[in-house]
Amino acid sequence: MNIHDYFSSMQRGLKQRRVTHREPVVIEAIDDNNGLFHYLVHFWDDSLLEIREIVTTQHGYPQKRFYSYHYQKAGQTIFRYDNAPHHPDISSFPHHKHIGAREQASPASPPTLSAVFDEIEGFLEQV
């Protein structure tokens, strides 16, 4: 798999989800193995998921060097998963999850994008 294959698979996966609008911000291949994927996904309740990944496929499969899946509504964070190295005290460092407007960080495994959408669908069912 090269970076172009990875980008295509991500876009196919996004098309399978029930959203109102998908907006590519940046999809940039630096070379055949490295790239940046940045998308905004709008949902029917005016909530928004921002997807950011810096990915390498150098060894034949995608490895996320950086990721952030930020879900918000009305400018308020509902949750965000990321691997920014700013919480070294968390047991899953650098992977963590920010929850709510205060964005308290808690341990988390790196989620799949499918798991992030499943979590969002749980929020949408409550609306």
Describe the structure.
The protein has helices spanning 3-15, 113-126, and strands at residues 21-29, 34-42, 47-56, 63-73, 76-82, 96-99, 104-107. It has 127 residues and is of the alpha+beta class. The relative contact order is 0.14. The model has no long low-confidence stretch (mean pLDDT 92).
Summarize the entry for a quick read.
This protein has helices at 3-15, 113-126; strands at residues 21-29, 34-42, 47-56, 63-73, 76-82, 96-99, 104-107. The protein is an alpha+beta fold.
Beta strand count: 7
Distance between the termini: 39 Å
Please tell me what the overall shape is. Answer: globular
What's the tally of helices?
2
| Overall mean confidence score, pLDDT | 92
For the largest beta sheet, what order do the strands appear in spatially? 1-2-3-4-5-6-7
Strand content: 35-45%
**By helix and strand content, what is the structural category?**
alpha+beta
Percent range of helical residues:
10-25%
Low-confidence stretches: none
Rg is: 15 Å
Number of domains: 1
The secondary-structure element order is HEEEEEEEH
Largest sheet: 7 strands, antiparallel
Secondary structure elements and pairings:
Elements lengths: L2 H13 L5 E9 L4 E9 L4 E10 L6 E11 L2 E7 L13 E4 L4 E4 L5 H14 L1
Antiparallel strand pairs: 1-2, 2-3, 3-4, 4-5, 5-6, 6-7
Features:
127 residues; alpha+beta; 7-stranded antiparallel β-sheet; 2 helices
